[in-house]
């Protein structure tokens, strides 16, 4: 008998795109589209149970086993390094992690570089590889303000279109890593629900491949 797969979906636009992919692959769940206050939605016939969570929390639910699988951005996986399996690159939610600074910025390597970011681990790893001495300034929002107010020299953040940077007289000066949404799995679930998870993974891979072929 097939086991139910618990899926953590990221709230927001990315989650809506992910759900559309799952439904196109045969894992639909009519109740998730109803207007109500339910937190968990399931379709026994399709063998799937969904719940919405904050994007940055998806990997925690999966790592802890509350969800068998989920979809998280590569930025989250790099920053928090959860103990999960990364199964597939969905090729959506595409952007990049980049270093940005005020226009005309020149890095004086004789002094410590001040780096404002929401992603201290990614920034530290990046600059450690360069052998650059840095001072991390951890912020949770409005990162672009830091260099404008001269609190930092540069920022490390996600860049999608670059519009916000441009409007604040900033510019990306270096790309750290491309970012996209990844299908992840709890390691124990992958062992004990391998048949169900592998079937879903294959269906998603085939669907995404067909979408690419049509482009």
CATH architecture designation of the largest domain: 3-Layer(aba) Sandwich
CATH fold name of the largest domain = D-Maltodextrin-Binding Protein, domain 2
**In which range does the helix fraction lie?**
25-40%
Q: Could you say which overall geometry the principal axes of the C-alpha atoms support?
A: elongated
Order of helices and strands: EHEEHEHEEEHEHEHEEHH
Task: Decide which structural class fits the backbone.
Answer: alpha/beta
Radius of gyration: 20 Å
Unreliable segments of 5+ consecutive residues:
none
How many separate structural domains? Answer: 2
> What's the level 1 CATH class of the largest domain?
Alpha Beta
Secondary structure layout:
Blueprint: E1 5-10, H1 13-24, E2 40-43, E3 48-53, H2 58-64, E4 69-73, H3 74-80, E5 85-89, E6 95-102, E7 113-117, H4 120-130, E8 134-138, H5 145-148, E9 154-159, H6 163-167, E10 170-179, E11 181-185, H7 187-192, H8 194-214
Parallel strand pairs: 1-3, 1-4, 7-8, 7-9
Antiparallel strand pairs: 2-3, 4-11, 5-11, 6-9, 6-10
